[in-house]
Design brief:
The complex is a heterodimer of chains A (about 475) and B (about 150).
Chain A: E1 2-5, E2 19-22, H1 27-37, H2 39-45, E3 56-60, E4 63-64, E5 80-85, E6 88-89, H3 104-109, H4 111-114, H5 120-129, E7 131-135, H6 141-151, E8 155-159, H7 184-195, E9 200-204, H8 213-218, E10 222-225, H9 230-243, E11 247-253, E12 256-262, H10 270-273, H11 286-289, H12 295-312, E13 321-326, E14 331-336, H13 358-361, E15 376-377, H14 379-388, E16 393-396, H15 400-403, E17 412-413, H16 419-422, E18 432-435, H17 440-451, E19 457-460, H18 463-470
Parallel strand pairs in A: 1-5, 7-8, 7-10, 8-9, 10-11, 15-19, 16-17, 16-18, 18-19
Antiparallel strand pairs in A: 1-2, 3-4, 3-5, 11-12, 12-13, 13-14
Helix pairs in contact in A: 1-2, 6-7, 6-12
Chain B: E1 2-4, H1 6-19, E2 25-33, E3 36-45, E4 57-58, H2 61-74, E5 77-86, H3 94-98, E6 105-112, E7 115-124, E8 131-134, E9 136-137
Parallel strand pairs in B: 1-3, 1-9, 5-6
Antiparallel strand pairs in B: 2-3, 2-5, 6-7, 7-8
Classes of the chains: A alpha/beta (about 475), B alpha/beta (about 150).
Chain lengths: ~475, ~150
C-alpha cells in the first residue's frame, strides 16, 4: 500500500489523519480509493468534471505527476504520494484595496473641482490617490505644499531637515512668525493639515542623498524639486530618470525663474539641459544672492499646476519646454528642450546607471575639518584688537546695498568684485582683516590678496553674522 | 489567531526586506490548537513567478513539499504562508485569494521603502471566494522613518 501524505488543511476531511495507507496500482487508483473512503476530500482535490484542481499538485516522491503519466503514473507499495498546494498571489489583482471614494464633507470641499468637467469626480479621485514627493519645504515648497494640500492630493511626502528662521518668512508663506525655530517639516505639515485634514503627509527629516533617494522616492508618483543647490538637483534628476518618475522642476534667482517637467515620457532631463554643473560658487543661492519674495510663489505654483495636470492627465504638460519668467519685465518666454541622445542618464546609451557622489560631481570639496583656520580670525579677537587700538585695516567686501542693512564700525567698503582694481589702495605691509556676510566672499578676497603677495591677511570667520552673534547683538542679521 | 515567534518574525522581515522591491514569500511551520496557531519557524523561499515580481509571487511546490517533510520530522505542521506587498498595504488581494488554499494562515507584510511597515493575516474560505482577517501577533516592528 502506498502512503499518502495529507496536507494540514485537508486532514479535517480525513479523520484528522496526517497520512494514510491506500492501495492502488496507479496514482489515479490510489486517489480514487482515498476519496471513496473520505468523500469530502474529493471536492477539494477534483473539479466537478473530475479533473485534478489546478492549485493541487500531486507528487510521487519528488516528481510532479503532471510531468509523469498523470493519473496513470504507476505506484509501488513503497512510494509516498504527497498532495501539495499551489500557493501564489501578489498585491496586483482585480480587487484593489478598498475603492477610493469621497465622503460628504469632501464632496463639499472639492465642489469647485467636481463641477469642472475636466476634473470631476474621476479627477478628484485621481488626486486623492496621487502620491507626490516634495523635496524641500522652502521658497518653492511653501506655495506648492499649500496648494497641493488644498487641491486634495491624497499623499504628500516632504523631505527637509531645515529649521524656520526669520529670513525665510519673506517668501516661505507656509511658515509663520510663531514657527521660527521649529522644524520646517512640522511647520509645513501643520499648515497643510490645517487646510486639508484629509491628506496624509509623510515627513522625511533628512537631506536627500544618493543612499536614501531611491528608497524615499520609490513610493511616489512624481517628485517636485524645490531645492536650491546643484548636487541635490542632479541627484533628484538622476533618481527620477532611474525610477521613471517625472521631475517637476523649478528654480529662482532674484527676479527670474524657470520651470519645466523633466524625465516624463521620453522628454528631456535636467542633464540634457545642463550636462555639467557650474563651477562651485559661480551661481549664488537665494541666501547669497537674494530673491524677490513673491518670485518663488509664481514658480512654485507653476510647478503645482504641472503636478496637478500630470495627475489628472489633462492639458499639455510643460515637457520639452523650459518656461522662463522675468518678474521685472513681467514676461514669460519658452525655450525648446530636446532629450539628448548622448545624455549620460537618459540618453540611448546611459553611462550613469546608479546614483553617484553629487557633491563631488558638482566640485564641492568636503569641508576640511578646521584645517583652514590659518589665515582666519574670530570676531571676538577682532573686537579685542579694535579695543586695544591695534593697527590694522578692516575691510568689508560686501556690496553697498548690504552695507545699508548693517555694518561694523571702522570698516572700509571694497566690494569683492572691486578688489582687483583697487588693490593698489592697500599696503601689503599692513595687517588686513576682511569680512563679508558669512565669511565666504571675504575668504575669496583673502585668497586673492595672498596670491597678490599680501602676507598679513586675515579672514574674519563667520562674517558679520558671527559678529552679531558673538560681539554686538544689536547688529541685525539678514 | 496566529502568533509568530520572534526568530520566525525576524526571518520573515529580513527575507522580505531583501526581496524588496520585489515580492518575497515563504512558508510558516508550527502548531495549531483549535483556532490558536503558533508559527515557530519561517522558511524563506524563492519567488518563482515568471514575470514582474514587484506585485506577484509564486511558491515552488517543491519547496512546500520539502517544508512539509521537515515539519513532519519535527512533529509540527505547515500552517501557512507569508508574502510581501512592496509599497502597498497588507491586504489580501483578489490574486492572493484566488491562488490560496483554505484553512492556511496567509500572512501579508507591507514593505515600504525597503522596510517592514505593517502586517496582517487572512484565512480563505473553502472555495476561495472570500477571506476573513485572522488576528496576528508578532513581535514589535523596529521600523523607523528617516
Amino acid at each position: 500500500m502506498a502512503k499518502v501524505l495529507i496536507p494540514t488543511p485537508l486532514r479535517q476531511y480525513a479523520d484528522k489523519n496526517d497520512s494514510l495507507s491506500v492501495s492502488g496500482g496507479t496514482v489515479g487508483e490510489v486517489l480514487d480509493a482515498l476519496t471513496m473512503q473520505y468523500p469530502e476530500l474529493r471536492r477539494h482535490l477534483y473539479t466537478d468534471e473530475g479533473k485534478l484542481r489546478s492549485f493541487v499538485n500531486v507528487y510521487v516522491a519528488d516528481e510532479d505527476i503532471r510531468y509523469l503519466n498523470k493519473d496513470a503514473t504507476p505506484v509501488k507499495d513503497t512510494d509516498t504520494i504527497s498532495i501539495v498546494p499551489s500557493i501564489a498571489g501578489g498585491s496586483a489583482g482585480v480587487a484593489e484595496p478598498p475603492a477610493v471614494t469621497l465622503d460628504k464633507d469632501e464632496v463639499l470641499r472639492y465642489s469647485r473641482h467636481l463641477i469642472v468637467p475636466e476634473v470631476g469626480m474621476e479627477g478628484q479621485l485621481k488626486l486623492k490617490q496621487a502620491k507626490v514627493l516634495m523635496v524641500g519645504a522652502g521658497g518653492l515648497g511653501a506655495p506648492l505644499g499649500l496648494y497641493l494640500a488644498a487641491a486634495g492630493v491624497g499623499r504628500i511626502g516632504i523631505v527637509d531637515f531645515d529649521v524656520v528662521d526669520f529670513t525665510n518668512l519673506q517668501r516661505q508663506v507656509i511658515h509663520g512668525t510663531k514657527d521660527v525655530g521649529r522644524k520646517k517639516l512640522d511647520s509645513a505639515a501643520e499648515s497643510m493639515q490645517d487646510i486639508n485634514p484629509y491628506l496624509r503627509i509623510d515627513k522625511y527629516e533628512t537631506a536627500l542623498t544618493s543612499e536614501n533617494a531611491l528608497e524615499i522616492m520609490r513610493d511616489y508618483d512624481m517628485v517636485i524639486d524645490g531645492t536650491d543647490n546643484f548636487p541635490t538637483r542632479y541627484l533628484v534628476n538622476d533618481a527620477c530618470v532611474l525610477l521613471g518618475k517625472p521631475n517637476v522642476y523649478g528654480s529662482i534667482f532674484r527676479f527670474e525663474g524657470q520651470a519645466t517637467v523633466f524625465a516624463y515620457q521620453g522628454g528631456p532631463c535636467y542633464r540634457c539641459l545642463y550636462p555639467e554643473p557650474p563651477p562651485p560658487g559661480l551661481v549664488p543661492s537665494c541666501a547669497e544672492g537674494g530673491v524677490l519674495g513673491i518670485l518663488p510663489g509664481t514658480i512654485g505654483l507653476i510647478q503645482a499646476t504641472e503636478a496637478v495636470k500630470l495627475i489628472l492627465g489633462i492639458g499639455e504638460p510643460l515637457v520639452g519646454r523650459l518656461l522662463l519668467y522675468d518678474a521685472l519685465g513681467m514676461r514669460f518666454r519658452e525655450l525648446k528642450l530636446r532629450r539628448n541622445v548622448e545624455c549620460p542618464v537618459c540618453g540611448d546609451h546611459p553611462t550613469v546607471t546608479k546614483l553617484i557622489d553629487y557633491q563631488q560631481f558638482c566640485g564641492i570639496q568636503p569641508q576640511p575639518v578646521q584645517t583652514a583656520t590659518t589665515g582666519e580670525i574670530d570676531p571676538v579677537e577682532v573686537k579685542a584688537k579694535l579695543d586695544r587700538g591695534d593697527r590694522f585695516v578692516f575691510i568689508d567686501v560686501r556690496e553697498p546695498h548690504e552695507r545699508q542693512i548693517c555694518s561694523i564700525p571702522h570698516t572700509t567698503l571694497i566690494p569683492l568684485g572691486d578688489i582687483p582694481k583697487r588693490v593698489n589702495e592697500l599696503n601689503s605691509a599692513d595687517e588686513i582683516v576682511l569680512h563679508c556676510k558669512s565669511g565666504v566672499r571675504s575668504g575669496k578676497a583673502a585668497e586673492f590678496l595672498r596670491q597678490a603677495g599680501f602676507k598679513r591677511v586675515l579672514n574674519m570667520k563667520g562674517g558679520i553674522l558671527a559678529w552679531s552673534d558673538k560681539v554686538d547683538p544689536s547688529v541685525p542679521k539678514y | 489567531m496566529i502568533t509568530i515567534a520572534r526568530e520566525a518574525w525576524e526571518t520573515i522581515a529580513v527575507h522580505l526586506e531583501a526581496a524588496y522591491p520585489k515580492e518575497g514569500c515563504g512558508i510558516l511551520l508550527g502548531t495549531t490548537d483549535d483556532d490558536r496557531r503558533q508559527a515557530s519557524t519561517a522558511e524563506p523561499c524563492r519567488n518563482i513567478y515568471q514575470g514582474e515580481q514587484a506585485d506577484r509571487f509564486q511558491l515552488d511546490p517543491l519547496d512546500i513539499l520539502a517544508a512539509d517533510r521537515r515539519a513532519r520530522e519535527l512533529g509540527i505542521d505547515v500552517i501557512g504562508f507569508f508574502h510581501s506587498h512592496p509599497d502597498c498595504d497588507a491586504y489580501f488581494s483578489a490574486t492572493d485569494l484566488a491562488n490560496s488554499w483554505p484553512w492556511y494562515s496567509n500572512v501579508v507584510v507591507s514593505v515600504r521603502a525597503g522596510k517592514v511597515h505593517h502586517a496582517a493575516a487572512f484565512i480563505a474560505n473553502d472555495d476561495q471566494t472570500q477571506s476573513t482577517p485572522e488576528d496576528l501577533n508578532h513581535p514589535e516592528i523596529t521600523w523607523q522613518k528617516y
